[in-house]
Amino acid sequence: MFDRFDNDAREAVVYAQEELRSMGHHELGAEHLLIGVLRAGGGAAEAALQVSLLRVRERLVGTRPSRLGSSSGHIPFTANAKMAMELALRTSLELGQSRVTTAHLLAGVVKVDDPLVSGALIGLGVDPAEAYLRARTWAGDDAPLAERDPGETAEQRPRAPSEAELQRKLGVLAIALRRYGHHEGGCRTPDAACSCGLAEALDLASNRD
């Protein structure tokens, strides 16, 4: 799954699930995605955020009540976590890129205005708006280099989609995210509470015109 995510972005989601379990939570939120991105993105992600993984994790631990029992099987995503992924896709599309990277995910997480994430970042002296711009710059500087043919001209490079195109693609993604859910080991039944069909959603949103 997650066909449109590069390896590091997929790893970030896996790390987010690990953080969820370690905190005793049962919904994957934007705060788990943030930690997952920092783990997967390493020094580049910390540089874009201008704060370390350790400090972010320490700040976020205990911000949401934990419940007894471990999370296994069905893992629902919060509305803000889904929105963060939509914003990550939007950033990728706006930059004319075909893959969602950890840089795009970081941009989505800090832009979604999740109260736990924003509160933690502000408490650490990080302005979420400035962090978004740095993450977007990281995405623009990093991803195109891996995708670009060294011999292509500026005219041959993918153009950024128009606002109408973005709205259409994001609309397809939003519908697909509502239709599918995320279950470990694969989803047998569509479930609006989670994000198992994210691969299909991202593929539709990126390619449907």
Strand content: under 5%
For the biggest sheet, the summary is: none
Tally the helices.
Answer: 9
**Quaternary arrangement of the chains shown?**
single chain
| Secondary-structure-derived class | mainly alpha
Which word captures the global form?
Answer: globular
Helicity level: 55-70%
Secondary structure tally: strands: 0
Radius of gyration: 17 Å
Low-confidence stretches: 143-160, 180-195
Distance N to C terminus: 22 Å
Mean pLDDT: 76
Order of helices and strands: HHHHHHHHH
Question: How would you characterize the overall build of this protein?
Answer:
60% of the residues lie in helices and 0% in strands. The relative contact order is 0.16. The chain has 209 residues and is mainly α.
Keywords:
single chain, about 210 residues, mainly alpha, globular
Offer a quick outline of the entry.
With 209 residues, the chain is an all-alpha fold.
